[in-house]
Structures are given as C-alpha cells and as structure tokens.
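__Record contents__

***
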Amino acid sequence: MSHVDVARHGYFSFSTTNKFQAEDETLAGPKTLREWELKDLHPSYNTKAMTSLRLTFTEIDELFLRGFRRSLTLLDLISEDYRGDWKRNLIISPTDAEDFERHIQFGRLSSEVSNIDYFQDQAEIRFWCLATEFLVLENEGFPGGQVFDPNTNGWRACPVPDVHASGFSSRILEIEKVASHVPQQVIAAMSSISHLSAPWNVIRHLRKRTDLLDSLFERTHRPVSADQHLISLAAQIDQSWPKNVPKNETFRPSGIVVKAYPKGKGLSIPTPTIMMITTISSVISISLAVVSYLKATPQPGTPQDADFFSLFQSSVLQISSIWPMMLTLRKTRLNKLASIYIWVLVVFGLLTAAVAVPLYILVHTGWSTLFSAASGVSQGFVTLQLVYVVAA
C-alpha cells in the first residue's frame, strides 16, 4: 500500500488496498478463527521442521505486534482538530491491532490449528502487510506529503517523525536476527514433507511472507559498514531449494535487470589490446622524455620561454583531467588492492604535473619534461582502469 493510500484513508485499511486479495481465492486460507476450528488438522504436515519454522514466524508476529501497540499510543498525541494532524496517518486501526493480538494468541501452537493451516492463513499475510508498512512510515513519515493546517487555513508539509534512529535500528535488527533463520528452516520444512503431495498453498504463502520481509529490509536496512550487503531471504531459499520438492515459481520474482554499465563486446573484447597500446605508448613517452632530458641545456629556464607556456598549459590540462577521475574513483567496483594502486597513481599524477612547472624555472628544463611525461603515463593507466570498470 502506498503512502498516498494511507494518507487518503487516515487509518491503515486493507479492505480495498490489500495487494494480495486479488489473487486466486484458492490460495486464501482460513480468514476467521471459527474457520480455523472447523478445518482438518493435517497431521502429516506437523513435522518437527514445520513446527520450528512456525515458531520463528510467531516470533516475528510478536515483533510486529509491538509496532501495532506503538501505533495505538499515537492516539493520545493527536490534537483535537483531527484534520490538521499528520500523526493520524501513522495510526493503525485499534480493531486491527486487537484482531492481530487475538490471532497470535489463538494460533501460537494451538492444538486446534495445524501447521499447514497456520502457514496458508490469509489473515496472517494481511497483518504482515500492515505491520511492515507501519514500520516504514513510522521511521520515514510522508516525504513530500501535506496536511491541512486549520491555524493558517492552508496546507503544510508533513514533518519527519520524531523517532530516534538508534531505537528504530534496534527494532529492525531484532526482526532481521529472527528472520535470518527463515531460509534454512524453510528448506528443512519443505524437505520434511517432500514425500507428500506438492503443498502449493503453503509454498505460495511462504513466498509472500519472505517477499514482505525482503521488502521491509530493503527499505529500512542500515549497513554497519560500506562492505556489508543485504542478502535476500528469497534468494537464499531459491539457491538451496531441495531438488525433490517441486515448485512452479521462484521465491524471488524475476525482473529485468538494467546495468548502469552493460557488458558489451565493444568494451570487453578489446580491453587487452587497449592495455597493450597504453603500455607501448607509455614506454615511448618515457623514452622520448629521457632523450629530451639528455639533449636539454643543463640550466633553468625562464618564464619568458615559449617552452614554459607550453609546459604550463600541459600541466593545467593534466590536473584538470585527473580531478574528475578522483570523483569517479570514489565509488567504483574495484577491489581493495586495485583501488589502492589507482589512488597512488592519481596522487602521483597530480604531484608530478604540479611540480613540473617550478622545476623548469628553478632546477633544469629536462627534469620538467620527465615529470610531465610521468604524470601523463600515470593518467593513462588510471584511465585504463576506469575502462576495466566500465567493461566489467
């Protein structure tokens, strides 16, 4: 459900916006507690692995329920003028919160509720949708949203929710910690019932739950370090899915992946050729610089020389070319060792280009040629490394 839908209706309501209700009714499990009581118990599915997975999901139920309860505390914060308070858009209906709590209490390993009934219960999906949306809105609010302000008789922007970052992170990390066991337990649970008929309803509903968890983590995950990457629960399940249990679709929905730097034959195939050309050019450049040094007059030059202005403009161009490369190299897909080498070349190129000009005036005109050539060579290899990044 989008933020716009939430803002329009005031309370979270899934009566018309639940994205899963449009699916085939054959997938919808028992919708009421009474229906749960009347269904067969399917004892064949009450394996130890299925029960373990169910326990993990009930832990997540409890964590989501805490969010429902926090929502109810916002009722006391709403001002008397209901129209002008943005907090009303963060509130979950008290009826939904009560229903969810009763649902959890009744379904927690109740002898009247079998594992398969618990896993294919559509009400659980509805409550999970509600809880994940609330967690996101609790932290982010309604960016770009507006509410009517009766004091000014106009519209004003919704403020950012007053939620402490560390407190919110701890809530998400707690859910992530419990959910980290889901892939392994799903695989074990499916393997434990592989001898039974394909439990399509169970698989479809498990996919919905992992999809909701992945969506929540993608929007709220805060990595501890830059190298930390969030691994999808659904991707882990697909990778380790038991071969003796058929499934007609993957847990992670397939989509079109568009690469910022697509790998094409025009870049990837001639890369070794580019490397060879760059190396040969560098050797020739350094060789000519050495010849220039040997043939140069062993004395400093003057700012009035024509060669001085040629050297000066060359150094300016080299520095202005290396500077954008520094900005580009800040975020690349290079490994750590290659990144260190490239940064060394970048700094070396900047220094040699800057030092070449004073060397011409103060020391020896031949030295300035050598330093200028060294700067050009380092710049060439930095550019070559960027070509590798694009071609990867």
